[in-house]
Specification:
36% of the residues lie in helices and 30% in strands. The chain is of the alpha+beta class. Helix 1 packs across helix 2 (37-54).
Amino acid sequence: MTHAHGATIRAYSATDRDRLADIWLEASRVGHPFLGEARLLDQQANVREDYLPQAENWVIELDGRTVGFIGLLDNDFIGGLFIDPACHGRGLGKALVLHAARLKGALDVEVYADNGPALVFYRRLGFAETQRHDQDEEERPLQVVRMRRPA
C-alpha cells in the first residue's frame, strides 16, 4: 500500500530481519536511552532472533529503502513501532499505526513513561491511558504506561 508521503507498507519477510534489528537499535537509542547501551545491545539480539519471527510485522519503505516497522502481538497489541531516526517526523509511524488499526480495529500498546515523545505520539493518534505499572516486563523499576485506541 502506497501512502501520500511516498512510503509503501508491506508484509515482513525473513530477509528483513537484520535491517529491522538495526532500525530497532538506532530508534531505541533515541527513545530508550535510559536503558543503557549494553542492555540495548542484548535486547537487539532478542529482537532479531525471537521477537521478529514471532510477531506479525509490517514494514514501511521510503524510496525503496526499509525505514521502519510495526510488530503486532496477540493480534491487536503493538509490541513495537520503530522508525529509522533519520526519518522521524515524516508521518511514517502514524502510517504504520493507522495501517494496523485498519487491519485489527482497536489497538493496545505499552510505552515507558520516560519516553515522553512516544506518549505524545500515541495520544495524538487517539490512544488513552488505561493502566500504569511501576516495573517493566523484566521487573526493572521503570514505569510503563498501557494505552488503548478504540476501533
